[in-house]
């Protein structure tokens, strides 16, 4: 009798534990029910699926941009959007100008290994977020959990790549195409070809709908996995994002 009770109790306990989400369900829920994804990360902190998706999109993005738009047009777009570079080329000899353009071509070809850079950025940012959340706000997250939050939370940024691919196939391109700002999801996009100072365009480009979406997801994720208030998690995410934006704006102001 006691054995039957034990068996029945074990079965009941096992049945009471809900099954975790699949990797595909996690990706989908990141967009429609993010709390479910981040709660599931506490069960299993795997992050290979979002990283794989972002990597595949990055490689496809690189191929489409380099082949549909072409290196000469891409370089012309960068030059046109960067007054200091435009002046430098104008004041260079033909040989010097050719060398500058060749160097830019080599940089563009490195786009194919961008997933490696994405991984490195994720590894570094996870450390920064983990240290801030745990030591400044008393969080209890692990490094692997924070890494998973980063890769799932930044999935909206991959949407930008997907939409860019679609617009390029739809005919977008030409000198107006800027590899650093490919979609009109920020105010800076609409000021790139005017007389607005480069630093202000950079600042306004940083306040992007997709970036804000990702920041909100990261806030939710850090709050859940670290066990801290949502407001504290917002300070972690938006605080570091603000520092990054100011840094980028400063560089733009310095380089012209």
Description:
By secondary structure, this protein is mostly helical. The chain has one domain. 75% of the residues lie in helices and 0% in strands. The chain contains 13 helices and no strands. Helix 5 (71-81) crosses helix 6, helix 11 runs antiparallel to helix 13 and helix 12 packs antiparallel against helix 13. It is globular and about 65 Å long. 26% of the residues are buried.
Question: pLDDT average, as an integer?
Answer: 87
Low-confidence stretches: 5-15
* Total E-strand runs: 0
Task: Give the helix proportion (percent range).
Answer: over 70%
Task: Return the string of H and E elements.
Answer: HHHHHHHHHHHHH
Q: What is the count of DSSP helices, taking H or I runs of 4+ residues?
A: 13
Number of domains: 1
Biggest sheet features: none
Proportion of residues in extended strands? under 5%
Draw up the topology in text.
Elements (H helix, E strand, L loop, with lengths): L1 H15 L6 H10 L1 H8 L6 H22 L1 H11 L1 H8 L3 H16 L4 H24 L5 H11 L1 H15 L28 H9 L2 H18 L3 H26 L1
Helix pairs in contact: 2-3, 3-12, 4-5, 4-8, 4-10, 5-6, 8-9, 8-13, 9-12, 10-12, 11-13, 12-13
Concise account of the structure shown:
The chain is an all-alpha fold. Helix content is 75%, strand content 0%.
């Amino acid at each position: 009798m006691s054995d039957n009770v034990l068996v029945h109790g074990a079965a009941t306990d096992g049945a009471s534990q809900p099954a975790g989400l699949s990797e595909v369900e996690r990706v989908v829920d990141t967009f429609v029910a993010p709390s479910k994804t981040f709660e599931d990360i506490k069960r299993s902190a795997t992050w290979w699926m979002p990283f794989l998706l972002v990597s595949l999109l990055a490689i496809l993005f690189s191929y489409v941009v380099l082949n549909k738009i072409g290196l000469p047009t891409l370089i012309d777009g960068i030059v046109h959007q960067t007054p200091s570079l435009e002046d430098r080329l104008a004041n260079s000899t033909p040989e010097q100008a050719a060398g500058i353009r060749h160097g830019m071509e080599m940089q563009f070809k490195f786009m194919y290994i961008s997933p490696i850079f994405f991984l490195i950025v994720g590894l570094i940012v996870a450390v920064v977020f983990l240290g801030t959340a745990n030591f400044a706000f008393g969080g209890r997250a692990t490094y692997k959990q924070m890494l998973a939050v980063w890769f799932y939370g930044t999935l909206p940024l991959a949407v930008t790549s997907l939409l860019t691919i679609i617009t390029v196939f739809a005919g977008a391109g030409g000198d107006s195409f800027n590899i650093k700002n490919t979609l009109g999801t920020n105010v800076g996009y609409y000021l790139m070809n005017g007389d607005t100072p480069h630093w202000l365009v950079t600042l306004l480009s940083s306040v992007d709908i997709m970036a804000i979406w990702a920041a909100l997801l990261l806030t939710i994720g850090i709050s859940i996995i670290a066990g801290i208030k949502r407001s504290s998690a917002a300070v972690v995410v938006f605080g570091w994002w603000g520092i990054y934006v100011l840094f980028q704006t400063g560089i733009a102001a310095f380089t012209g």
